[in-house]
Amino acid sequence: MARIAGVNIPTAKRVEIALQYIHGIGPAKAKEIVAKVGIAPERRVHQLSDQEVLQIRETIDRDYIVEGDLRRDVAMNIKRLMDLGCYRGLRHRRSLPVRGQRTHTNARTRKGKAKPIAGKKK
User: Fold this and answer.
1) 52 and 105, same structural domain?
2) 90 CB contacts (<8 Å, ≥6 apart)?
3) Does 77 lie in the same domain as 59?
4) Dist CA 16 CA 36 (whole Å)
């Protein structure tokens, strides 16, 4: 197992795909990293030499914000919105959708399991 940015990446997968297991690296950044280091995209992680793994690790550390730092940045941005009391911050505080989606129906993922309302008494 190759360990990059504190994550064990799978050895049997192609390098581009394996890099996407790191939080903050998607398809575009993975291709960019592989191109910078100069590794053929079809190579598998277990075929890489220690030197190539080291180059990938150094490139990610130098040029990208990933894993813990990225999670911390996102959490701090959300906390800032909540402290400001702006509309987006209030939506985060109430665990409701932030980006304008309807909530009359749907939004179950964000709101949680439906709470039944007591039926009308006769």
Assistant:
1) no
2) 82
3) no
4) 12
32, 75: one domain: no
Rounded Cα distance, 111 and 121, in Å: 27
Residue 118 located in a structural domain = no
Q: Note down pLDDT in tens along the chain; length 122 residues.
A: 788 888 898 989 999 999 999 999 999 999 999 999 999 988 999 999 999 999 999 999 999 999 999 999 999 999 999 999 999 999 999 999 999 999 998 999 999 898 888 766 66
Name the residue type at position 50: D
This prediction has a pTM of: 0.78
Beta bridge partners of 4: 7
CATH of the domain at 38: 1.10.8.50
Element (H, E) at 87: helix 87-93
- Same domain assignment for residues 55 and 91: no
Cα–Cα distance between 15 and 31 in angstroms, integer?
9
β 7-9/2-4 pair status: antiparallel
Within its chain, how far is the Cα of 47 from the centroid?
A: 27
One domain for residues 57 and 8: yes
